[in-house]
Task: inverse folding
């Protein structure tokens, strides 16, 4: 019983800490998504607009927009004339999204190795090297932001607008899970090492190696993130 009380207190503290992150639509989406992914909010839990508006100290309009975006990400279900509820993101569904992401990132890395300009390669390498300090400081939030920028450079480096659109849309749906992985012990250092293999291959213009490194990287991310699927989180 004591353990259950302590667990509830920890969840309440985490919930309050997350809520203080801000009140813009983007910040609400991130805060609610993080609560869903990390199990603070459970599948089937009701997401009442008025309650959320009070909790985040905003009007109901931005709350509706945040719920709409969360619905597009697959984290929230909403039926006509009914309140939104936390979706049941299963391990199988999460795996299917990461499977698609692995293929898309592999394509981007291969094309980037072939098409990136000298300046683009140099910028990618510099940003990657600079992120080492974030790893050493265990700065999870800052590294998560770096990770987004790193992969965006990779996608842009493919110089294919259609692929860029597909890969960024898929990434948006996986963003909360990719962000959550950095909570796992030792994950920042491993992510840095995986990025290093990708960067090295691109700098050498080795398209095959870059593709394989990117594919393997996302597959590892998938394994790290799968623990946050709803049918695993207990």
Result:
């Amino acid at each position: 019983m004591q353990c259950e009380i302590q667990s509830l207190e920890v969840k309440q503290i985490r919930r309050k800490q997350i809520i203080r992150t801000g009140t813009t639509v983007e910040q609400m989406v991130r805060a609610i998504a993080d609560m869903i992914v990390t199990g603070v909010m459970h599948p089937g839990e009701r997401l009442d607009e008025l309650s959320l508006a009070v909790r985040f100290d905003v009007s109901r309009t931005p709350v509706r927009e945040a719920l709409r975006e969360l619905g597009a990400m697959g984290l929230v279900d909403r039926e006509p004339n009914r309140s939104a509820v936390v979706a049941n993101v299963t391990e199988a569904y999460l795996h299917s999204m990461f499977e698609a992401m692995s293929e898309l990132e592999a394509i981007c890395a291969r094309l980037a190795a072939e098409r990136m300009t000298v300046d683009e390669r140099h910028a990618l390498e510099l940003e990657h090297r600079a992120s080492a300090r974030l790893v050493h400081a265990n700065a999870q939030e800052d590294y998560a932001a770096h990770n987004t920028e790193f992969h965006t450079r990779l996608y842009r480096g493919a110089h294919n607008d259609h692929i860029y659109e597909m890969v960024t849309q898929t990434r948006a749906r996986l963003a909360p899970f990719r962000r959550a992985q950095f909570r796992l012990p030792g994950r920042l250092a491993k992510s840095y090492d995986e990025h290093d293999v990708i960067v090295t291959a691109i700098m050498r213009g080795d398209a095959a190696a870059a593709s394989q490194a990117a594919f393997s990287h996302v597959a590892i991310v998938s394994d790290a993130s799968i623990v946050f699927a709803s049918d695993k989180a207990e």
